């Protein structure tokens, strides 16, 4: 009788320890994904803030292609107003991809003008855009890695039980086009 009671208590303690460890692991992985997402959102905001400088430095070289500047402004607005949150990642990624394409188009047009291609202000702003794009790519990679680790662990036993009990919500990946 005593041995049975001790066995039940030991099993209960092991199950409780496993549950606590599973909860801690999922909490840590979720926190890592959330922190990486916060870093990504900050890099995206920095890129949005750089767009007015891009437009100001390139406007005199656009000539008849002024619609490209309005495309960049429209893409920036769409990227800034897209849902920045875990549930709106697909829409946010699409808006960011459109902004990337609009920026590439405007720099392509400016580089066709010999004066624009050699303008130090344009060159400096282009370097900032490229640097920021690299930082955004790095942040996307960090976030996607953290989200993938969290999602992989979330689906495995005994973590799947903790997910259903404590409501560990899924995290989507953020896909930027190259």
Automatic annotation (TrEMBL):
GO CC annotations, alphabetized: membrane
Main localization category: membrane
Cell location: Membrane
Membrane topology (UniProt): Single-pass membrane protein
Listed InterPro entries: LemA-like_dom_sf, MamQ_LemA
Keywords linked to the UniProt accession: Membrane, Transmembrane, Transmembrane helix
Gene3D superfamilies in UniProt: LemA-like domain
Family label: Belongs to the LemA family.
PANTHER family: MEMBRANE PROTEIN, PROTEIN LEMA
Protein name (database record): LemA family protein
Record organism: Hoyosella altamirensis
